[in-house]
Amino acid sequence: MKVVTVVAPVNIAVIKYWGKRDEELILPINDSISGTLSTDHMCAKTTIQASPLFQENRFWLNGKPQDFDNPRLNNCLKEVKRRAKPSCPILNWKLSICSENNFPTAAGLASSAAGYACLVSALAQLYEIDGDISSIARRGSGSACRSVYGGWVQWVKGESPTGEDSLAVQLAPASHWPEMRVIILVVSNETKKYSSTSGMKTSVETSQLLPYRAKEIVPKQVERMKRAIADKDFEAFARITMEDSNSFHAMCLDTFPPCVYMNDISHAIVDVVHTYNQLKSSNKVSYTFDAGPNACLYLLESEVEEFLSVINYVFPPRSGSIQDEYIKGS
Ligand code: 2P0
């Protein structure tokens, strides 16, 4: 029997990935950039056991048995095994895979990113493969390739039709900007209405904004964001992050039928952030929203206490009715 356990973190994109140019290989139509969180709070944990005595492969997610016959899981497994040394003694053993997230799964909180980064890292340890594994994690879920590395990470879309150059690169380690913090405001922990995979497919097929965003907007924003991160220029970082979130959700609304991910509370949070920044005459807090209503806020450590007191005032914990009043009155 051989057993490995791996923990992998969530990443929060500041330049969003949305749209594939190849569905099977999971190749994106634009580059994306994210910050990988520490594993202190939100992470995925995967334990894989391999044994010559197991009769069949088995897979559990958050304690529930899953169908092992999942094409993305099998693409990752196939690719890891292809890279393993032929002498690897466990290549023909069956596996028991146990994965769990310590945060809502499929609620737009990058659970598949952490999950597949974790799975592929565990498989890579199990079969003792070397080299970059981000392009394997990408086959599980596009955004998972970014969770393979810590700190600030760019998923370079690549040019090759076979995808070998579509991988993640670390722009800077977390220690480069140690004052950076992320606050996640969980607006809803319900499973999202439509998966990212199907939403982005519909966007590619129907949104007229999507090709313009991919060709004209994102490449410039990627260069600006890389400079903001390298210079630790929070003002610029915050502005680009919010612009990209807004551009991404505009494209989601331009999809037909539209992908509506943000709700009234999400928009109320946007208002609070802009009001706060206006009062401070500077972008001290930035928001970004993924494929769900939850807000991810990037801010510096020095701003956390004051901003959280504002959030607790505007959205008092355990009081949905006051939140509703704020929205009606805002
Ligand atoms: C991102 N999202 O860059 C963007 C922002 C959601 C909004 O990557 O089909 O779960 O598995 O490649 O990776 C979510 O997409 O989609 C995503 P697949 P994935 O973080």
Automatic annotation (TrEMBL):
Q: What keywords is this UniProt entry annotated with? A: ATP-binding, Cholesterol biosynthesis, Cholesterol metabolism, Lipid biosynthesis, Lipid metabolism, Lyase, Nucleotide-binding, Steroid biosynthesis, Steroid metabolism, Sterol biosynthesis, Sterol metabolism
This protein's pathway reads:
Steroid biosynthesis; cholesterol biosynthesis
Query: Gene3D superfamilies from the entry?
Result: 3.30.230.10, GHMP kinase, C-terminal domain (3.30.70.890)
Stored Pfam families:
MDD_C (PF18376), MVD-like_N (PF22700)
Picking any one GO biological process from the record gives: isopentenyl diphosphate biosynthetic process, mevalonate pathway
The keyword ATP-binding is assigned to this record: yes
This chain's function reads: Catalyzes the ATP dependent decarboxylation of (R)-5-diphosphomevalonate to form isopentenyl diphosphate (IPP). Functions in the mevalonate (MVA) pathway leading to isopentenyl diphosphate (IPP), a key precursor for the biosynthesis of isoprenoids and sterol synthesis.
Q: What does the similarity note say?
A: Belongs to the diphosphomevalonate decarboxylase family.
- This chain belongs to the protein called Diphosphomevalonate decarboxylase
Q: What is the originating organism of this protein?
A: Phyllotreta striolata (Striped flea beetle)
Q: What is the lineage of its organism?
A: Eukaryota, Metazoa, Ecdysozoa, Arthropoda, Hexapoda
